Amino acid sequence: MTIGPGSPMMGAVLVKLRNPNREIQADAPVLVSVQLQRGGVSRASVLVVRNGTIVAGDTRLEADDVVEVRPVISGGAT
């Protein structure tokens, strides 16, 4: 699935979403926060990892980046 229908892909970011597992190709360049918004994902509920490093919402994703979006899991001792 390509995000940003109708726009020519100058480059693509591979976005790997977890729970459920799926992959999408997204137009690049794009900010993390914009990409999450397009996908209907709340920034507060996920960690975004680009090429092995956790990144902030204002990070610009470039063509050929591999991004993993993982749900935040919290818990504590009882």
Question: How would a textbook summarize the main sheet?
Answer: 6 strands, mixed
User: How much helical structure, as a percent, in the residues?
Assistant: under 10%
Calculate the mean pLDDT score and round it: 85
| Helix-strand pattern | EEEEHEEEE
Low-pLDDT stretches: 1-9
Q: Beta-strand percentage?
A: 35-45%
Number of helical segments? 1
Total strand segments: 8
For the record, give the distance between the C-alpha atoms at the N and C termini, rounded to a whole number.
42 Å
**What is the spatial order of strands in the main beta sheet?**
1-3-2-8-5-6
Structural category is mainly beta
Shape from CA axes?
Answer: elongated
**Radius of gyration using CA atoms only:** 13 Å
Polypeptide structure, described:
The protein has one helix and eight strands. It is mainly beta. Strand 2 (12-17) and strand 3 (22-27) form a beta hairpin.
Compact summary:
Helices cover 9% and strands 41% of the residues.
Task: Write the topology of this structure.
Blueprint (H helix, E strand, L loop, with lengths): L1 E2 L8 E6 L4 E6 L2 E2 H7 L7 E5 L2 E3 L4 E2 L4 E6 L7
Parallel strand pairs: 1-3, 2-8
Antiparallel strand pairs: 2-3, 4-7, 5-6, 5-8
Which tags fit this structure?
mainly beta; single chain; two-stranded antiparallel ribbon; six-stranded mixed β-sheet
